[in-house]
Amino acid sequence: MAWNEPGGNGPKDPWGNNNRGNNDRGNNNRGGNQPPDLDEALQQLLKKLNGLFGGNGGGNNRNNKQGNGAGGMFGIAAVIVVVMLVFNSVYTLDEQERGVVLRLGEYLKTEQPGLRFKIPLIDQVIPVNTTKVREAEIKERMLTEDENIVEVELNTQYRVLDPIAFALRVESPERTMLSAAESALRHEVGSTAMDPILTVGRAELAEKVKLRLQDYLDRYSTGMELTNVNIKDARPPAQVKAAFDDVQKAKQDKERFINEADSYANSIVPEARGRAQRQLEEARAYKERIIARAEGEAARFENLYNEYRKAPEVTRERLYIETITEVYNKASKVMVDVDGGNNMMYLPLDQIIKNMPTQAATSGGISDNDIARLTDRVLNEVRARQNTSNSSRRGEGR
After folding, report:
1. For residue 110, what are the CA distances in angstroms to 93, 192, 250?
2. HEC readout, the chain
3. φ, ψ for residue 134 (rounded to 5)?
């Protein structure tokens, strides 16, 4: 039988009351099939909770109701607190995190990933992501070693290597990273000229900044490890960009002229060295030739002297002929002074030799026979002109 059936014979309702009719519920207008009043049910529940937590059941009805209400509220609050404490005692760490546990503000231990427990209100857990790569960027104007101003953008990537130091040793690790990065960058930029920073020296500058920044982070005990440091951009300030471009163009022209001069030198210097070496070789050959000729002439003179001592006349005649031969070989024109005449005779030997059908035309030299024939022709020519001159004189004498 249901607890709310009419007649009061059913079992007690959930609030501990017999089903004795509608008048007992404080509602005379309801039928027997209506559910119990909500306010009455709430009061019954509060009464039960008050009894559980030591509520006073004595006194009049009004005081009893007030006591039941206060005790019920206290019980609900206690239940809520207990539930919250239970939920707060359980926490979860994923695979990327490590939990730094503090008990009453003092470091206790480091928890690994998984489902963990703690004492509520006593233990505090600081989760630290140890695998995530974090980034920090700065953009500042800085003074270089040669007293120029450049704008530098620096990007740093790092991860947490020691979660205890990251969580406890430094109050604000990210802000510390930015300050340390700016300090390291200013130190390295201030020790470098502007041109390498703007052109080919960025990689070297980034490596120096990385080493110095990691040293700062280790000394500050931040527990952070740098994975990459990159100079994203480096440029002169916008106010002086036009002048800077002119300077860069002038430097490029300078480099171009230097390269052209080096190329010209590389082509001229070997050629000049080759000519110098050739002249040296020619000088050595000339030296050896002259020395050999002088030695030969000396030996020839000694031999000729010996022959002269044996036959002076023959040797003298031979020397004369050889000398005339040598002179005629080198001369192409001969001037002959005729005895007893006023005219100077001109003999074109080059033309005479050219008209002679001898071996001179083919061999390029004059033999002894050619010289003899040439001498005969010269003598005949001299005699003919001399006879002509004599005839002219006799005619004038008559």
Report:
1. 11, 44, 61
2. CCCCCCCCCCCCCCCCCCCCCCHHHCCCCCCCCCCCCHHHHHHHHHHHHHHHCCCCCCCCHHHHHHHHHHHHHHHHHHHHHHHHHHHHCEEEECCCEEEEEEECCEEEEEECCEEEECCCCCEEEEEEECCCCEEEEEEEEEECCCCCEEEEEEEEEEEECCHHHHHHHCCCHHHHHHHHHHHHHHHHHHCCCHHHHHCCCHHHHHHHHHHHHHHHHHHHCCCEEEEEEEEEEEECCHHHHHHHHHHHHHHHHHHHHHHHHHHHHHHHHHHHHHHHHHHHHHHHHHHHHHHHHHHHHHHHHHHHHHHHHHCHHHHHHHHHHHHHHHHHHHCCEEEEECCCCCCEEEEEHHHHHHHCCCCHHHHCCCCHHHHHHHHHHHHHHHHHHHHHHHHHHHHHHC
3. -95, 160
What are the C-alpha distances in Å from 19 to residues 2, 46, 155, 223? 10, 20, 78, 71
pTM of this prediction exceeds 0.90: no
Residues 164 and 107: beta-carbon distance below 8 Å: yes
Which domains are assigned to the chain? 37-86 (no CATH), 91-129 (no CATH), 134-236 (3.30.479.30), 331-391 (no CATH)
Q: At 256, list the tokens.
A: 């171009």
Q: Considering only residues 235 and 336, tell me which one the structure prediction assigns the higher pLDDT.
A: 235
What is the per-residue pLDDT across 323-377, written as a single tens digit (0 to 9) for each?
888 776 776 666 666 565 555 556 666 666 666 655 444 555 556 676 677 777 7
325: how many CB neighbours lie within 10 A of its CB? 15
**Alpha carbon of 342 to those of 269, 330, 346, 390, 395: distances in Å?**
65, 28, 13, 11, 16
